[in-house]
From TrEMBL:
Organism of derivation: Araneus ventricosus (Orbweaver spider)
Highest taxon of source: Eukaryota
Protein name, per record: Uncharacterized protein
PANTHER family: APPLE DOMAIN-CONTAINING PROTEIN, ZAD DOMAIN-CONTAINING PROTEIN
Length: 116
């Protein structure tokens, strides 16, 4: 890992550290400053022209939708995500675009009980 860090530019190091911070302080249990952590990570990724995968875009756009303790969420939820998104991908003929993403997100919000 140390040899990898030596090869990274300052911007790449910042992106790596931001990712580690989100992984450590958000994906287990939410830190109080989780919005800042995710925002910093997204900014760092943009600086190095890193395309955000769908899951990261959802994380950035819908932070308030995530439960307080993400560490308690099972793999079943991840499997449900992959099944749901594949259905939308088929409906949109395999083309990823903003309309597909928006429709998927609203379907998740609509299908989630309000006490979640």
């Amino acid at each position: 890992m140390k040899s990898l860090k030596k090869k990274l530019s300052e911007a790449e190091k910042a992106a790596w550290l931001a990712f580690k911070s989100v992984f450590t302080h958000f994906l287990g249990n939410k830190a109080e400053n989780y919005e800042d952590l995710v925002g910093d990570m997204v900014k760092c990724f943009r600086v190095i022209s890193c395309n955000m995968p769908l899951k990261l875009h959802v994380l950035d756009s819908h932070l308030n939708f995530f439960p307080q303790n993400l560490g308690a969420i099972s793999d079943e939820h991840g499997e449900r995500f992959h099944q749901g998104i594949s259905m939308f991908e088929k409906r949109f003929s395999g083309r990823w675009n903003r309309s597909m993403l928006a429709e998927y997100i609203w379907s998740v919000i609509r299908d989630t009980p309000s006490d979640a």
